[in-house]
Amino acid sequence: MMDKILLAGFGGQGVMFVGKILTYAGMLAGREVCWIPSYGPEMRGGTANCSVVISDEEIHSPVIEYADCGIVLNQQSYEKFLPRIKPGGTLVANSSIVDTAQKRDDINVVAVPAGELANGLGNASLANMVCLGALLAALTTVDMAGVEKAVDAVVGKKKPELYEINLAAVRKGAGK
Amino acid sequence: MSKELMKGNEAIGEAAIRAGCKLFFGYPITPSTEIVEYLAKYLPKAGGTVLQGEDEVASINMCYGAATTGTRVMTASSSPGFSLKQEGLSFLAAAELPVVIVNVNRVGPGLGGLGPSQADYFQCTKGGGHGGYRQIVLAPSKGQELYDFTLEAFDLADRYRTPVVIMADGFLGQMMEPVELKKPAQAELPAKDWTVGGCRGRAKRKIASYALTNEVGEANNLHWQAKWARMQDTLQRWESFHAEDAEYLIVGFGTCGRIAKSTVLAARRQGLKVGLIRPITLWPFPVKAFADLGGVKGILTVELNFGQMVEDVKLAVECRTPVFSHNRVGGMMPSEGEILRKLGQVFGLAVEV
ipTM of this complex > 0.95? Predict the structure, then answer.
């Protein structure tokens, strides 16, 4: 089993964070993982993206030419990464600010009003986690239990009060 | 043993601490900054000191001074910053001082850009400074190797009294992977009976490489050359990946070597006998890996530059088989598929990508 995942959005939307959660979830389940951020000027305002590979076997090439699935949090990222999903793959889009009129027939575009759903939880910055929830169905290597462990490992120790709300956002996105 | 998820740069920093590095002098530069950041946070807790020099020139010369006392010392930079250290490296090689220098390559030439690159291959392996010297250059390809090779670099530096360069790229430095934080090997190293730092109770020592008498100059150079020849004989290292029965060989180091493994596996699935030689020591270059080319019909090198290592491959191959090159520059990465396409194209093979 292998998941190649692309994640993208504005700097500050929590793209890297979702990537870290996925990476930890994979590692804590004993899988091989690799997380690659875009770095440099993107981190200071432009579009940030990162890629995550989770695999049962050693990861040789960490470069993702075509991904199995992905999350895009802004319009620019939607347009950039729509062609980078494999046929049959899934792209979760934050439809609160992404217009998904541009389509592909051979992939599953999941439009989630993540901004509104996050606002409903009282914290607009959780749109990233709502989208993570919506992505779970498309993943073969990570499930809800894995995400719970990962959020505990990454957030739990430092900010225990954020643990529950992050998971609530993931559940919201997963429709649970 | 449990693994820690860490950036490649952080793995280098942690390995340095565990190797007993006590002093770090450097000047931050993307994409190597996390090394100095990590060490600034953790090295003092391990009884060491991190000092940000006023620039790279100062930092490498601080390393020179620290190394004369026998203290384990490191510096780290990225390409434009590494350029500034070249005079210092020449001096370190001549004074035979053990220092570990990390160069997380970024795009060049000039100020270049922040993307990953391997375009400092010539500079690292051929001596970017003046005067004709050699230094060990190690090329890791993943987080675990960034950790392991950094640990080992300190031992190699002490064993041979030489600067050792870790040549990584921005991709490796920024990538986060699980790393097993192994204990350093208990290597038996020669006593540091050459250090200076106070001669009370012993004979005076001197560390300098200045010789105004040509006869002495030649003797010095012959001494260094003998050491470099010994290193060339004993230190060559590489990884063979499905190379034993290969008809076509890919040669790539670092990130490219790693990506090429996926190409090899894809080619094998199509029934093509493709293998990989991944140089681990860039200097000394693993000439021995090419001693017996068996049934190899051709070689394709893959590099993040316009073709630098390919020259060493050609020297090692001595025209016994054709050598082609696949290159990406400017921060772009080759995909496993594009390497396979190129392989098919140059050797006239039917490949499916």
Answer: no
